[in-house]
Amino acid sequence: MCWTENERLSLRGCYDPAPHPILAQLAETPALQRLALVGMNCGCEYTAFPRFSRGRAYSRYVHSLGVGAIVWHFTRDAKQAAAGLLHDIATPAFAHVVDFLNGDHLTQSSTEDGTRERIAQSPEIQSVLAAWGLCTDDVADYHRYPIADNDSPRLSADRLEYTLGNALNYGFAELATLRALYADLAVGQNEEGRPELVFRTPACAADFGRLALRCAKVYVSPEDRCAMQALAELLARAIDQGILSRADLDTTEPQIILALQQSALSDAWTEFCCLGRIETAPAPPDERPWRQIRAKKRYIDPLTPSAGRLSRWDPAFARDLSAYLAASQSEYVLAEPSD
Asked: Rounded CA gap, 145 and 68, in Å?
């Protein structure tokens, strides 16, 4: 397998030096390889907003490799690790932009709907699973495995990987810092008596909690919300005009971009890519296309067995988290081309 530098960095260099062979075999399948051309930043990386346009490349494929490796590292269970690896297999091009297109942007779950079908219909995946004595039911729903996934504000492999990956991508932390935070993790029991990834030391829990909240604020920033809404509206136009079909959304981002560039919506795609400045207002001040755009608020309140959830013993974090969760997203926002 030809590993890129980012893949070696995220999968082998940090999460687990020797992941189970099933992960490498599944990673070779066409259904997984497609995710190398689906980004983690939901189309925002094609805009001119500096936070996204200057970031490192970060694909759903790299994220999936990381989740699988994390689950293996903490469970040593090939079934759970494979479920973690395959959890994003149905993610469409531009990922959660399609949730905006589907009107599901506050829960962002519609893009998971085809996971079982994708796994069941891939002969390559089925062959690998069979070789390891597994079946579709074992790996099609990673929500069954709390180390792979759980509900906010708990910490799971999925939430952990995209927090560490985006913290690196956005320049919020250096790799050495992220490695140290990862090394402090263990499997513990949460308040419900269920397994959860926990921090051994309160200091690491505090550092990670603040880092995760900083990333969470990016996910609901006006730049992010405007870019995703604008791209969803562009995709809707392309579908209405017959330039794209719904099935095309299950291909790759370069394929869809090429179709847009070769169509009557070429200028609209170029205008989207030029978006780089945000205006906000309590009410629309003019006739430009102002929007009220709400988005799902992701957050993590890390647990340390000796101290409890971070928000219980760190007043500053508790205030910041409460303010984040209480923010109404009721302002009107407008994305404009960079000056």
From this structure: 12
CA distances (Å), origin 270, targets 173, 176, 263 = 32, 38, 12
Is residue 55 over pLDDT 90? no
DSSP string, 196-221: EEEESSHHHHHHHHHHHHHHHHHHTS
Task: Say what the pLDDT of residue 121 is.
Answer: 97
Which contacts qualify for 15-18: CB closer than 8 Å, 24 or more apart?
Answer: 15/66, 15/69, 15/70, 15/73, 15/161, 15/182, 16/69, 16/70, 16/72, 16/73
CA angle 57, 299, 159 (to 5 degrees): 50
Question: Which residues does 234 contact at the CB level (< 8 Å), separation at least 6?
Answer: 260, 265, 268, 269, 272
| pLDDT over 90 (residue 14) | no
Given a cut of 60, whether residue 11 has pLDDT beyond it is no
Put simply, whether the predicted model's pTM sits higher than 0.90 gets the answer yes
Sign of the CA dihedral running 312, 313, 317, 320: positive
Q: State how far the Cα of 187 lies from the Cα of 145, in Å rounded to an integer.
A: 13
Q: DSSP string of 105-134?
A: TTT--GGGTTHHHHHHH-HHHHHHHHHTT-
- Specify the residue for token string 């932390």: 173
CA distance 79 to 103: 33
What is the C-alpha separation between 38 and 40, in angstroms, rounded? 7
Which single residue is written with the structure tokens 């988005």?
295
Listed in sequence order, the DSSP H helices in the chain are 5-7, 21-27, 30-33, 50-53, 60-75, 78-85, 97-102, 115-121, 123-131, 136-139, 157-169, 175-183, 202-219, 222-240, 253-261, 266-274, 310-313, 315-326
Q: pLDDT band at residue 6, thresholds of 50, 70 and 90? A: low
Beta partners for residue 59, in sequence order: 39
Kindly give the pairing relationship between strand 275-281 and strand 332-337: antiparallel
Residue 8 pLDDT more than 70? no
pLDDT in tens, 288-311: 999 999 999 999 999 999 999 999
